[in-house]
Structures are given as C-alpha cells and as structure tokens.
Amino acid sequence: MKEKKSNFSNSIGFVLAAAGSAVGVGNIWRFPYLCAKDGGGLFLIIYLILVLTFGFVLLTTDIAIGRKTKQNALKAFGTLHPKWRFLGYLTFLVPALIMTYYSVIGGWITKYFCEYIISDGSALSKDSYFTSFITSKVSPIVFMLIFLALTAWIVYRGVEKGIEKFSRFIMPGLIILILVIAIFSLTLSKKDTDGTVRTGLQGLWVYLYPDFSGLTVKRFLEILLDAMSQLFFSLSVSMGIMVTYGSYVKDDVNLNKSINQIEIFDTGVAFLAGMMIIPAVFVFLGTDGMASGPSLIFISLPKVFEAMGPVGKITAIAFFLMMGFAALTSCVSVMETLVANCMEIFHKTRKQMCSMIGIYSLITAVLICLGYNALYFELPLPNGATAQLLDVMDYISNSFLMPFISFLTSILVGWVIGPKYIISEVERNGEHFGRARLYSFMIRFVVPVVMLILFLVSTGIGNLF
C-alpha cells in the first residue's frame, strides 16, 4: 500500500529543514580553512558573489523542480523530459555515496563530544590521539553506530513529525551556539614568550581583510574553484536533496522568499563559523594552525581548547555539540533522499525503507571505518592528492558527480525545457521574482560553461591545458 505524500507544514518548517541540510560539517571546518588559505576577505567576496549567482540558480532550480513535479529526484527529471530520466539516477548516486561516510564523520564528532563530557580533554590535544582513534578497529564503529541510529530514527518519524520537528529545535540551537562561541573567540588573547600579544580581534582582521598580495590569474582561478567547490558542500545542490525537499513544499509557499532565507541562513552560518574558528586558532596557534579537514577540527582545535584553561572544556563541549547538530541535520537530509527514492523504486513503506537504507548505511560505513586499518590503501587522485577509501567516496560524489549533474541540469533547464518553466513555478502565487532575468542568463550561458570546466578539472583533463 502506497503511503500518503508527506509535506512540510509551512514555509518556516521547510526553510529550517532545507537550511539544516545545507548547514553541515563542510560549513564549519571547510569554509574557515579555505577563507584563511585563499586571502581572507578576498575569498569572502568571491564566495558571496557566487552564492548570489550560481548558488541562487542551482538552489532555485532544484527546489522549483521538486515542487513543480511533486516527485523526488529519481522521477522528477523524467517528468520534465522522458529522455532525461537518467539524470535522476545520477543524482541518486550522490547521496548513496555520501551516506557511506557521513555517519563515520558524525561518529568522530560524537566520540570527541563524549570524551570532553567524561574527561578534561587533555588527551585529545595530543597529535597522535586522532590517528590512533580512527585506526582502531572497534571504537570508530561504535560511535558511528550511535550517530547512524539517531539519524535513522529521525528519518523514520517522517517529514513533519521527524525532519521538520527536529529542525525547528536544532537550527535555532545551532545558531545560538555558533554565535556565542564566535563572540567568545573575539575576547581571547595570548602573550608569547617574546612579549607579542595575539588577540581575537587581530584574528578577525586576518579573517576579513582581503589579501591581494601575489594575486595572479592562475591564483584567482584557484580561489574561484575553491569557492565554487565550497558552494556545492554548502547548499546541498545537485545531489537530489533539494529536489526531494522541494517536493514536500506546499503550493501556497512563497518559493522566492524561502530560497532567499535559505541562502541567508547558510551563508550566515558559514560566515559565523569563520568568525568562531579563525580568531581562536590565530590566538593560540598562529596562522600555522589553520590546517585543513579533520586536522582542523580534531587536532588543531583541541589544542586551542586546552590552551584556554578551565573554560576550554566548556567551550569544547559546546563546540562539538554544535558540530554534532550540523552533522546530524545534513546526514538526515541525505538519508531522507535515499529513503524517498527507494520508496518509489520498491513501493515499500517508510518503515521498511528506513530499515533497508539503515542496513546499507551500516555496512558501507563499517567498510569506511576499516579503510583506516584493515582495508587501508593509498590511491592518487586527478587533483594530485593521495586518498584512501573515505576520500575516494568524497571525491567521486562532490568533485566529480556534482559538477557533472549541475552541467546536465543547466542544459536541460536552459536549452531543453526553457528557464520559463522554473520561473513560472517561482511566480506561481503571483510573487515577484526579482532575479528572473539573472536566472535565465545564468542557467543558459554561465552555469554550463563553468560546470563543464569544474568537471574537466575533477577528471584531470583540465590539467592538460
């Protein structure tokens, strides 16, 4: 028996759920790191321009397609045009790959949160702690299982009683935690042995000041690609999530206003994350402390918390609680997309599909955990980096598939069905779509070119030119 179609109860529920999907671990560690690496305020300016152009176009396209067709991503593209049904299956691959490792990262965060709760956290600041934890064979699997079980429980409860209700509680809490820690970071200071004093406000200047020194065309393109890559991380576009969430939006919701609110939420959280992390790391570790990825969250920041003294433990607990919220909202959206798609494929209930996707996620996540010990290998990627199992899944989904899906989607909307299809959906209730002309121009001429370049770079072909 087919279940009744679920919906968000109102626009606020949709905005908070969609913003929760967009605001994830990538916003917290990746955005500050890239900002510090790519010229501070210069990266901020470029990223903001991309959000208002590319981000707006991709987000609008996904959500409008979802609401117009009332289908999840698997069927939505086939509804737009029968010959483009394959695009729905491509979008299905992205969350299927992301789900293999996101709960693993969520387990790492859960582990650190629990450790700070039960101990003073001094052991976590050691350089070897993180490596010894992820390479152990049991502990990462246990904490991954805790995080995955919570994710599955929220998705099992459905759209309104699970995802929306959870987001209404978590998102305000997440914003408050980030804001409090950000303000606290600005009050920090430390005196070095040579008498030099570093303050949080100086760190804020490092974060906001546009550094144009040594800027060349090649360097500008590198920053542009970093910012565009972050955009995919940040807005959950081109992976079927926003199409699925869009299908849950009622027809009387002002789509244009909701999309603007999601942009503000997501970009605001990313900005506050930088304001929270960069000043604190600058004060206690200097500019050398801004390492990327897991090194920033699980190695550099525990050193910062230890250097803070007695208040460090409280700050660490608040930080990893916030990180847990961010990871959970994103993981829920990824699993929901898989469950919604599989309900259509297998014609099963939400309960049955939650169990099925839960088992798939558990098996693949265990394999990812073992990728740091029993299944460890090193594989060179087209971008020159060396990867193991988690990195390979991340690279295929985020750097390879997502630009390719965005390229194909822009061709479909811009040149096959026409931009008016999306614009009419945004203006369904008589709302004014102020960026309609920009949308038409971007989706037809700009997005296809840039996405094709990103795709070629991800495959290594772009390095030949």
Can you walk me through this structure?
By secondary structure, the chain is mainly α. The chain has a single domain (11-464), classed as Hydantoin permease. It contains 18 helices and four strands. It has helices at residues 11-22, 25-37, 41-69, 73-80, 85-118, 127-134, 139-156, 159-186, 200-208, 217-235, 241-247, 255-285, 294-307, 310-346, 350-370, 389-417, 420-426, 436-459; strands at residues 189-191, 197-199, 379-380, 386-387. It has a two-stranded antiparallel ribbon. Strands 3-4 form a two-stranded antiparallel ribbon. α8 runs antiparallel to α14 (310-346). It is globular. It is a multi-pass membrane protein. Its main location: membrane.
Share of helical residues: over 70%
CATH architecture: Orthogonal Bundle
Q: Please list the strands of the largest sheet in the order they lie side by side.
A: 1-2
Q: For the report, how would you describe the main beta sheet?
A: 2 strands, antiparallel
What is the succession of H and E elements?
Answer: HHHHHHHHEEHHHHHHHEEHHH
Low-pLDDT stretches are: none
Radius of gyration: 22 Å
- Give a count of the beta strands, DSSP E runs of length 2 or more: 4
CATH topological fold name: Hydantoin permease
Q: Mind telling me the CATH class?
A: Mainly Alpha
Main location: membrane
Pfam families: SNF (PF00209)
Protein name: Sodium-dependent transporter
Organism: Blautia ammoniilytica
Compact overview of the structure:
The chain is an all-alpha fold. It has 18 helices and four strands.
Helix and strand arrangement:
Blueprint: H1 11-22, H2 25-37, H3 41-69, H4 73-80, H5 85-118, H6 127-134, H7 139-156, H8 159-186, E1 189-191, E2 197-199, H9 200-208, H10 217-235, H11 241-247, H12 255-285, H13 294-307, H14 310-346, H15 350-370, E3 379-380, E4 386-387, H16 389-417, H17 420-426, H18 436-459
Antiparallel strand pairs: 1-2, 3-4
Helix pairs in contact: 1-8, 1-11, 1-12, 1-14, 2-10, 2-12, 3-10, 3-11, 3-12, 3-17, 3-18, 4-5, 5-7, 5-14, 5-15, 5-16, 7-8, 7-14, 7-15, 8-12, 8-14, 9-12, 12-13, 13-14, 14-15, 16-18
Subcellular location: Membrane
Transmembrane segments: 12-29, 41-65, 86-109, 129-156, 168-188, 227-248, 269-291, 311-335, 356-375, 395-417, 438-461
Protein name: Sodium-dependent transporter
